Amino acid sequence: MPGRQPADPVLSSFKNTMAKTDKADRLKARLPRGLQDLESDSLRVTHATLQKIRAVFERYGFDPLETPAIEYTDALGKFLPDQDRPNEGVFSFQDDDEQWLSLRYDLTAPLARFVAENFDRLPKPYRSYRNGYVFRNEKPGPGRFRQFMQFDADTVGAPSVGADAEICMMAADTMDALGLQGQYVVRVNNRKVLDGVMEAVGLAGDEHAATRLTVLRAIDKLDRLGLDGVRALLGEGRRDESGDFTKGAALEAESVAVIMGYLETGLELPELRGTVAGAEGVAELAQIEALIEASGYSDRVKIDPSVVRGLEYYTGPVYEVELTFETVNERGETARFGSVAGGGRYDGLVARFRGEKVPATGFSIGVSRLLAALGALGRLEQTNVPGPVVVLVMDKDQTAVYQRIVSELRAAGIRAEMYLGGSGMKAQMKYADRRGSSCVVIQGGDERERGVVQVKDLIEGAKAAETIADHEEWREARPAQVEVPVTEIVATVRGILARHGLDGR
After folding, report:
1. CA 332 centroid distance within chain
2. Count of other CB atoms within 10 angstroms of residue 97
3. Binding residue per annotation — 314?
4. Is residue 3 scored above 70 in pLDDT?
5. CATH number at residue 298
């Protein structure tokens, strides 16, 4: 018997070189930082939650609107004319006519552009809701993504604070619809009130913009730091438990006393009512409070002088939806979940396009954060979508027969598919398990001649398998497998689905 011929060293070297080259040229599958893939279970839960929100918005008379994910950068208000490209914060690129375009960073700026562009034909007030992904060109981190979903509702063209009160009530009804009764509060303040406080301590005017921003940020930390923490930030600064020092606003003692008086007494502060902006803000909040009380929402919507939002954006009432239940943060500390939605009045946004003030108010839900909160409470609606019924392909020359079975199941409203791979029965059964199928339909040549099929209940079969140890016993018993006439396939599959509480229409 002749021995094996020695390998050709040249050929072997060539094959090794080609293998290395192919591997070097192969693309690496990788997800960009700050983005995430969402699979079927997550998407179904999200869609169910969005539908509940949408139902509330529709009940209030709001209509859907969808704007593109890309806008001219200057329409978003993010363009810096002294640079060659837009500033950080948005993803931008140049069109073929050298105009800058950007992915939207929120849903409100595109709404303002749409209203301005279609102003004459739209009914005023114009009430709309929108949901979709927005994009931030920011450094990603834990729970901080570059693409995330928002769900907004806005009323454009209504100067009355009745529109603001309605948004607050709608926000409360939305939280109730999601099963969060008693675990949230809608907190309401007014930018005019905050402007009045700043005026009362001598911080009005552009020359005090930086100090004013420091003061407002300190007020915004009231819930987390308490009165003493805010007082320190209004003065020289505050050192936290880790030893880190945050520089304060360095206000005079008299100014600190006025601001602390505002936080302790709220709208009753005499210095506040003595300013024009403050007096207007107090009056508007009184109107909102009266409407809230008359509508029966006083237990869920509260006036809160510490709410600070959109320091250079909002022009009147501001509000946020805060979840009040406690959770454990990433450091293992007990903390409140915090805000999942917020908004306010922005009478100057549409004016950027029209040159005249157009009153507008609205709020935005952070869908990802809301879903995380619902998940922490176990309130996410688990959609009970069964895996498809899989019709196995026993004889490849009979695919038309199997396709007819699948079509009959689908026509009856049952999720079904014919196996389209190239494997045998064992692999097909494994495929059905991975798909989460409740049952499979089997028809070989013998069954086809007799006009019957085998329907195997995979869920019941898995339970039976726990009590059967012997392979021969398994083959003899064929647990949870029944033989039925072809005409009874639909009824049999429906019965299996119903047995397991699945949709067996």
Report:
1. 24
2. 5
3. yes
4. no
5. 3.30.930.10
Strand 416-418: give its sheet, edge to edge.
416-418, 389-391, 439-442, 452-457, 481-485
Q: What is the pLDDT of residue 76?
A: 86
What per-residue confidence (pLDDT) applies to 266?
Answer: 82
Q: Is residue 156 a contact partner of residue 360, using CB atoms and an 8 Å limit?
A: yes
Are 406 and 355 part of one and the same domain? Answer: no
Q: Does residue 444 sit in the same domain as residue 484? A: yes
157: phi then psi, degrees, rounded to nearest 5:
100, 15
If asked whether residues 363 and 398 sit together in one domain, one would say no
Percent of the chain predicted with pLDDT > 90:
62
309 is known to lie in a ligand binding site? yes
Cβ count within 10 A of residue 387: 18
Average pLDDT along the chain: 88
336 & 414 share domain? no
Q: Is 313 annotated as a binding residue?
A: yes
- Between 426 and 142, the more confident residue is 426
Residues 69 and 136 both lie in one domain: yes
Same-domain pairing of 403 and 372: no
- Domain region containing 437: 389-499
For residue 321, the cross-strand partners are: 186, 341
Residue 131 shares a structural domain with residue 178: yes
Least confident of 69-73, 309-313, 343-347: 309-313
Instruction: Give the chain's largest Cα–Cα span.
Output: 112
| CATH number (domain holding residue 469) | 3.40.50.800
Q: What angle do CA 433, 435, 437 make, to 5 degrees?
A: 65
Residue 433 counted as an annotated binding residue: no
What stretches of 246-361 show up as alpha helix (H) in DSSP?
253-265, 270-273, 276-294, 351-354
d(C-alpha 54, C-alpha 60), whole Å: 10
Residue 195 annotated as lining a ligand binding site: no
CA distances from 54 to 49, 143, 273, 346, 372 (A): 9, 25, 40, 23, 19
Exposed (0-12), middle (13-18) or buried (19+): which is 482, by Cβ within 10 Å? middle
Predicted local confidence at residue 268, as pLDDT = 85
